[in-house]
Amino acid sequence: MAKIVIDGVEHEVNPDNNLLQECLSLGLDLPYFCWHPSMGSVGACRQCAVMQYRDADDKEGMLVMACMTPATDGAIISLEAEGAKSFRSDVIESLMISHPHDCPVCEEGGECHLQDMTQMSGHNYRRYDKKKRTHHNQYLGPFINHEMNRCITCYRCVRYYGDYAGGTDLSAQASHHHVYFGRHEEGVLESEFSGNLVEVCPTGVFTDKGFSENYSRKWDLQTAPSVCVGCSVGCNTTPGERYGSLRRIVNRYNSEVNGYFLCDRGRFGFDFVNNPDRLLEPVQRVDNTGELLADDQIKALIKEFKADGTIGIGSPRASNESNFALRAMVGEENFYAGYSDVEHDSMQVILELASDVAFHSPSVREIEAADAVLILGEDVTNVAPRIALALRQSVRNKAKDLAEDSRIPQWQDAAVRELAQHERSPLSILSPAVSRLDDVASDRIIESLSVVVSMGHQIANRISASAPSAAASTEHSEVIEKIAMQLKSAKRPLIIAGNSNGSDVIKAAANIARALRDGSDGPAIDLCLLVPEVNSVGMGLMASAENPLGAALEKLQSGEAKRVIVLENDLYRRAAKAAVDAALTKATKVLVLDQLPTATTANADVILPATAFSEHEATYINYEGRAQLSFQVHQCQKQAQPSWRWICDAEHVDDLVERCCNEAPGFARLREVLPGENPFVAGMKVPRQSHRYSGRTAMLANVNVHEPKQMEDKDSIMSFSMEGIPAQKDASVLASSWAPKWNSNQSISKFQDEVNGELKQGHVGCLLIERKNSSGSYFEAATELKEPSAKQLRVVFSYQIFGSDELSARSKPIQARMTDAYIGLSPQDARKRGLSHGDVATISPLGSPVVVCIRTGIKVGTAMLHCGDGNISPADFSGLIEVEKSATQTTSRGIGNLIVSDFHEEEINS
Amino acid sequence: MLTLIKDTLTSQVVTLWRVFSHLWVKADTVEYPDEQPYMFPRWRGRIILSRDPDGEERCVACNLCAVACPVDCIALQKTEDEEGRWYPEFFRINFSRCIMCGFCEEACPTNAIQLTPDFEMAEYKRQDMVWEKEDLLIDGTGKYHDYNFYRVAGKKIGGKDKGEALNEAVPVNVRSLLP
Ligand code: SF4
Ligand code: SF4
Ligand code: SF4
Ligand code: SF4
Ligand code: FES
Fold first, then answer.
1. How many beta-carbon pairs below 8 A join chains A and B?
2. Distance from CA of A696 to the nearest CA of B (A)
3. Nearest chain A Cα distance for residue B118, angstroms
4. Do B152 and A173 make contact, defined as CB atoms within 8 angstroms?
5. Which of B64, B67, B75 has its CB closest to that of A699?
6. Are A619 and A629 in contact (CB under 8 A)?
7. Backbone angles phi, psi at A160, to 5 degrees
8. Which residues pair with A864 in a beta bridge?
9. Is A660 helix (H, G, I), strand (E, B) or coil?
10. pLDDT of A909 over the 70 cut
11. Does the beta carbon of A228 sit less than 6 angstroms from any atom of ligand 3?
């Protein structure tokens, strides 16, 4: 700790940080633009000037940029000195010289960091009367709007997009006051994290396109703390609603999980909530037409389903509460897993490893701290996107070490990057095809999945001889040696695998991690095992290992079970079509609870509408086993209810959570995520609406001029109103980040205990799975797989960030980036079959149509199958497939939206 | 004591004199509704939405009037034409709540919303006090004749490209290296 004097007051600060960061941590208002809490300083904007004095006698002082000056012990500075203040107001005046007169028609207005800083710096009248320089805008795809006139050249966008997120298609162009930030030509921004530009850019240059089409000011949005349901990372979000429709999602800071950034699936994939196809009424099928169900009919139905002979199928995309309610209703022995049997098997392995004391499941922040990473067989960018962004930061740990050796502070972003050049911490990827992380990989091996697995085992064996070895091939022995040494010498090694393609890869990954610990009592090794859906882990804990989906379908088919309740799930995505068809036809009654129509609801006898994530309070468990609470944002206007409310008589979420803690093994700590009563003053609730929320007496006046009573929320500590305890008093329930003078998302520093720290009184979630005291043993090295015949290819399943997630695929902006089901082939395999890029082919056994995508970065003999938006079920394939050119060549979306680096587009047959 | 009585009597006589003296003064009130009173142009009465000098809707749906309104009686939704011009999809004022404070007019950056001297707004049914854009929008510029927000703003709209607004230079050629 260092002591510095700011405007005559002594403060304790951290000398490893710069003055700006420390001023903000102390809660002082100092304007800035180019500094970013997770990107450090470059000193580009000159807005953060303060006066620094040599000693107590120095009355003159000199101007320094707070973000470029370390907070050294004994420093004396002044924010209020006349010289500093007038400098800051001159700087902002010059930044505003060409600023357009746009605020009323600017999407950033009302949450604009530039507006805030202009106010704070005291510039309010444009004296410059010469002409403003102007720019043309670019089309940047379905997610982002571009309005270059509003730029203040802080360089945050290119630093984020290029340096932080690894994007290659956004750059600074031209010179002097003509500097332009855009693509080299118009087109879709390629990065999967482009949406963060909206929040990183302090002005209205990059704005959310979907939000603009359905626009509302920040102060008019009804918001609540929520959790992204796009994948198993569980990033924290703030969705906003107005006039009954969900308008946008912005990041909500969680120091352990997503920090300041989301992926584009999470940010733009919420629109399914507004989908006109939403199921909103309880119906039952009578002679192929839907008939509305009355309350007493529903009661009778539920009673009927409570009788013996009913089974329930859970869902990895439904909350813990709904899964638990179904389990409680049908009984544990009749509750079946709602994902494919392959996934079920690998989930058992994952859960076993999750309670093994040898391993640690790292949070996203911990992943950033890894100094040697090995990814086995998983396409992280498409399965758990936010983790890929964290991995891009992990490779910078080498640079940070180098900086430390040269005594350069970590926050000196440009200097640290300049020093490191292309030096990176090791990140090795072994997989059947190139991935979007390859540009930062130190080694990347493209091999068939079985070779990847066996290489994994060999690495484990190289690290510790006690690990079982696999049949060694000499081909990659050097790389194996190298990776083993890198992992072994690392301070914090990290092994990543996932269950996209069965459990063999996971077992190999676990063996490597176990070898690294090698029976010692040393620290647990980071082993990150990815699962695809928001509550895969929660449902995995809930469903017994003996109850896979296949068993449920068999039970229905054999008549052993007569009725089935399907919870928020499309079984046709989980099991082979024939098996699902047989089971559903045989069942006497099929009750489906869901949000949107699916192939399963089409075969249901009764459909009960379920609320979407923003319409109910719920808990989910992410890939680490971290339970998180997501609040309700708005009411569903129609008859949809949380699934649990249809099938059990619990009154509140809290009651169910309580029961779940007591009755479901592994959930004992779930209640810790519920907000405590303590922070609430005089029984006041936390408002979901800002104190500026407008239109209260006019929004519904067209329907009835007599305003209805404010909607009550009996379930939650939040209210559907403007009144209550302001967010500043309790940061753990941060409906929306706002502080006096700080209208933009940069106000988050007012809620952190220090910059980049935890939210004040915050809740980062709660790790549910307890580790046993003893550690398990090595897995057997997997046996060789059957060799494919000349015609066959080995299939691996490929996730796509846009399309593989069932719900976000029903959102308009995401649909604009989706592809058809496609098959990725190496040029050699394609040539053999007479296929060219973009052809339509059929694949065995069902003859499903897929688009051919020829990529140079795919292992020969491997076919990467992307199942599209449920067009094909992975369960229909077992290992080997045949591909043939199709007679019909029509596609709907094609594969034009695919962004990979290794297309092989030249004519194959010539 | 004596002075107190004297003062009280004088004061009452003076007051009475003042009252009666008004018998001969011309009345300020008029025989409304037979006779219409003179309304000052800046009187804060019925609210209208005006058009710019080119005859287009002035309101850009910025929501500032709505947020300024102390009784929250304005609700609107932004939409956009094909060429990027913002305007309200609906614009509603609940006059049964409006207190004619004029904050909306003061907040409006485009001079779109204006209060007028019309005060005759009584209705038999309260529901009829809810006015939509069709009821609010007039054909003229109202009190402010010349201002056209989109001529000043940098946003491109139909008929005005980048660099064509007031005080704007032609758009930069980013490929040029000239100073
Ligand atoms: S970027 Fe900010 S200051 Fe600039 S026009 Fe938009 S809201 Fe106004
Ligand atoms: S576009 Fe935004 S982030 Fe990029 S330099 Fe301009 S103001 Fe900064
Ligand atoms: S990484 Fe996953 S949880 Fe995070 S924003 Fe993306 S889809 Fe949502
Ligand atoms: S303040 Fe003016 S421009 Fe903005 S919404 Fe209201 S009337 Fe329209
Ligand atoms: S924030 Fe310090 S110079 Fe930009």
1. 137
2. 5
3. 21
4. no
5. B75
6. yes
7. -70, -55
8. A796, A824
9. helix
10. no
11. yes
Read off the pLDDT of residues A679-737 as tens digits, 9 standing for 90 and up: 556 678 889 999 999 999 999 999 999 999 888 888 788 999 998 887 777 777 888 99
Measured from the Cα of A205, ligand 1's closest atom is 1
Domains of chain A: 2-95 (3.10.20.740), 283-339+538-645 (3.40.50.740), 346-532 (3.40.228), 792-909 (2.40.40.20)
Domains of chain B: 47-150 (3.30.70.3270)
Give the residue carrying structure tokens 């758009």.
Answer: B171
Q: Determine whether the interchain pair A132/B86 forms a contact, defined as Cβ–Cβ distance below 8 Å.
A: no
Helices A113-121 & A82-95 angle (0-180, nearest 10): 140
Q: Tell me the C-alpha distance between B19 and A838, whole Å.
A: 97
Query: Which residue's alpha carbon is at the smallest distance from atom 8 of ligand 3?
Result: A266
Give the separation between CA A412 and CA A720, rounded to whole angstroms.
Answer: 44
Nearest neighbour of B130 by CB, restricted to A104, A696, A701: A701
Main-chain phi, psi angles of A417, to 5 degrees: -65, -40
Is A28 exposed, middle or buried, given 0-12, 13-18 or 19+ CB atoms closer than 10 A?
Answer: middle
Determine whether the interchain pair A702/B92 forms a contact, defined as Cβ–Cβ distance below 8 Å: yes
- Selected residue with higher pLDDT from A878 and A141: A141
Ligand 5 mean position, distance from CA A68 (Å): 7
Beta-carbon contacts of A5 under 8 Å, excluding residues fewer than 6 positions away, are A11, A75, A76, A77
Decide if A698 and B86 are in contact by the 8 Å CB cutoff: no
Is the pLDDT at A519 greater than 80? The verdict is no
Tens digits of residue pLDDT in A309-337: 999 999 999 999 999 999 999 999 999 99
Distance between CA B7 and CA A429 in Å, rounded? Answer: 103
Cβ–Cβ gap A149/B80 under 8 Å: no
Instruction: Share the mean pLDDT of chain A.
Output: 93
Nearest ligand 4 atom to alpha carbon B107: 1
- Pairing state of beta strands A766-767 and A792-797? unpaired
pLDDT score recorded for residue B27? 85
Measured between alpha carbons, how far is residue B124 from residues B34, B89, B95, B121, B128 in Å? 21, 28, 13, 10, 8
Q: B71 contacts in A (CB within 8 Å)?
A: 697
Sign of torsion, CA A381 A386 A387 A390? positive
Residues 637-696 of A with CB under 8 A from B: 692-696
| A131 in Cβ contact with B169 (< 8 Å) | yes
CA dihedral A805, A510, A575, A536 (to 10 degrees): -50
Please say whether the beta carbons of A48 and A419 come within 8 A: no
The torsion region of residue A518 among left (phi > 0), alpha (psi -120 to 50) and beta comes to left
- Which residue's C-alpha comes closest to atom 6 of ligand 4? B65
Q: Is A699's Cβ below 8 Å from some Cβ in B?
A: yes
Pocket residue to mutate for ligand 1, from A96, A108, A124, A198, most atoms within 8 A of Cβ: A108
Whether the bond between B33 and the residue before it is cis, its omega within 30 degrees of 0, is yes
Nearest CA in chain A to B92: A698
Q: Where on the phi/psi map is residue A676: left (φ > 0), alpha (ψ -120 to 50), or beta?
A: beta
- The predicted structure's pLDDT at residue A908: 46
Residues 111-140 of A with CB under 8 A from B: 129-137
Q: How many CA atoms lie within 13 A of A430 on its CB side?
A: 27
Between CA A321 and CA A331, with CA A327 as vertex, the angle to 5 degrees is 155
